[in-house]
Design goal:
Blueprint: H1 12-18, H2 30-44, H3 53-66, H4 72-81, H5 85-96, H6 107-122, E1 130-137, H7 143-156, E2 163-171, H8 174-182, E3 184-185, H9 195-201, E4 202-205, E5 208-211, H10 213-216, E6 219-223, H11 229-232, E7 238-243, H12 252-265, E8 266-274, E9 287-292, E10 295-300
Parallel strand pairs: 1-2, 1-7, 2-6, 7-8
Antiparallel strand pairs: 3-5, 4-5, 8-10, 9-10
Length: 301
């Protein structure tokens, strides 16, 4: 998979400081935890409160051993001073992010998309050569974006033959983007998929389920850090944004910053959907709350 040479410190001063000793299972001290927490926060807006110290500690131990560093303190030095630190950030993000998802995880939001959102958005589009842009902003390994594509292909396109759909999935984790681009999943990912869709849109091969090429072509996956203001400015003119189970990892300041960027990414009369455990209360007053059966959405007016 990866060779140790890819991650061996190359800065001579760092080599002399860190050495190549084996990780000694030393505890993540409060001082280093605070420093590491700040580093991660500045990088991507994810905030680890004091009670998440053990989570961060356990998630990084394997990575530190792989790098043959002796402590969390040396790993912090590695992030700050090593010539290859930008490459290491990819693996840091993979270690600290949680990617719990599966197909048709949020059926009420998909129902709202079909019954309320698409008709509303389509009403403001020309009746010829129109496009609706949908963004899965934190798409993880792609199940949400592909579920959306299946629903659109099955239930929306026949009613709106003049509409074209562009679906983009983004995530900060490179590894899950690779999985999404492959379009191949295990049984865990398809456990909530209706049998009809499973038979029509998946090819089962020895326990692996490959998404239908027609659906795969409807979705494009890209790397994106939602906390990167400059990168976010390139994501514009969306009619619908799904951004579920992301805000729960941010503090108030980060939530305000990210939601403001999502607002700017939406077209007028566009819709934002977030997770069940999330709210925009105290974060943004720019959206109008819209109620649907078993779920809610936020509309940019």
């Amino acid at each position: 998979m990866y060779t140790q040479a890819q991650f061996t410190p190359t800065t001579s001063n760092l080599n002399s400081t860190i050495g190549f000793q084996t990780f000694n299972n030393s505890e993540l001290t409060i001082e280093v935890f605070s420093e590491l927490r700040k580093y991660i926060y500045n990088l991507c807006g994810i905030y680890f409160p004091d009670n998440k110290k053990y989570f961060l500690e356990s998630r990084l131990q394997k990575r530190i051993r792989f790098l043959k560093l002796e402590s969390f303190e040396r790993y912090m030095d590695f992030l700050k001073y090593n010539a290859n630190k930008n490459g290491e950030i990819k693996y840091l993000v993979e270690a600290i992010t949680i990617n719990e998802t599966f197909f048709f995880r949020n059926q009420p939001q998909l129902d709202a998309l079909v019954s309320g959102v698409i008709p509303s958005v389509a009403a403001n589009k020309p009746k010829t050569n129109s496009k609706i842009k949908i963004w899965s902003a934190a798409s993880s390994s792609g199940e949400e974006a592909y579920s959306t594509a299946i629903i659109l292909n099955e239930l929306v396109k026949p009613k709106y033959p003049y509409l074209d759909f562009e679906i983009i999935g983004t995530d900060i984790n490179h590894a899950v983007i690779e999985t999404a681009n492959s379009g191949v999943y295990k049984e865990y990912s398809i456990r909530n998929t209706p049998v009809y869709y499973l038979k029509k849109y998946f090819k089962n091969s020895n326990g692996s389920y490959e998404i239908d090429p027609q659906i795969k072509k409807m979705v494009t996956f890209k790397y994106l850090n939602l906390y990167d203001d400059a990168a976010m400015r390139a994501f514009i003119n969306f009619d619908v944004i799904f951004c579920a189970n992301v805000l729960i990892y941010f503090d108030v300041a980060s939530k305000i910053r990210v939601v403001s960027n999502l607002y700017n990414s939406l077209n007028r009369n566009g819709y934002l959907f977030i997770g069940y455990a999330e709210t925009l209360q105290g974060i943004s007053k720019a959206f109008k709350l819209v109620s649907y059966p078993k779920t809610i959405g936020y509309k940019k007016e």
